[in-house]
Amino acid sequence: MSKVFIDTNILIYSIDFSDPVKQKKARELLARSVLQDKPVISTQVINEFYVVATKKLNADPVIIKNIIHNYSNMEIVQTDLQLIESAIDISIISCISYWDSLIIAAADKALCECIFSEDLNPGQNYRGVVVKNPFA
């Protein structure tokens, strides 16, 4: 089983009824990742998911908390000083945002093969981790 990093936007689309096509693709990706791969997320992803789901999608915070509780089945990369310093290096070297770099650093730390994200450049390879856009 290979490890795959799931970015926040995939989790958001999985509960967003405003775009049924992306919602279906996100749900299929998550189901496939759980069955065939080892999905990985980070504390950053969990925090972003909660804020976007409750503020932009106006979802019930209690329901979102219950969804987040189910993420305990995934590997969760903790944001620590080492990860922050790695993200800063990635940001400087790759000329990308710090927040995107923190996602890459977490995927790298967990030894993921790829990052599923709509926000990063598909096909781009960062430290051996390849970005894949499941909606492209």
CATH superfamily (homologous) name: 5'-nuclease
Helix content: 55-70%
- CATH architecture tag: 3-Layer(aba) Sandwich
The end-to-end distance, rounded to whole angstroms, is 24 Å
Strand content: 15-25%
What gross morphology would you assign?
Answer: globular
Largest sheet, described in full?
A: 6 strands, mixed
Could you give the order of the helices and strands?
EHHEHHEHHEEE
Give the averaged pLDDT, no decimals.
95
Overview of this protein structure:
- The chain is an alpha/beta fold.
- 55% of the residues lie in helices and 15% in strands.
- Helix 1 packs parallel to helix 3 and helix 5 (81-94) crosses helix 6 (98-109).
- The model has no long low-confidence stretch (mean pLDDT 95).
Write a concise keyword list for the protein shown above.
6-stranded mixed sheet, 6 helices, Rossmann fold, globular, alpha/beta, 136 residues
Show the helix and strand layout.
Elements: E1 3-6, H1 8-15, H2 20-36, E2 38-42, H3 43-56, H4 61-70, E3 75-77, H5 81-94, H6 98-109, E4 114-116, E5 125-126, E6 129-132
Helix pairs in contact: 1-2, 1-3, 3-4, 5-6
Give a short overview.
The chain has 136 residues and is an alpha/beta fold. The chain contains 6 helices and 6 strands.
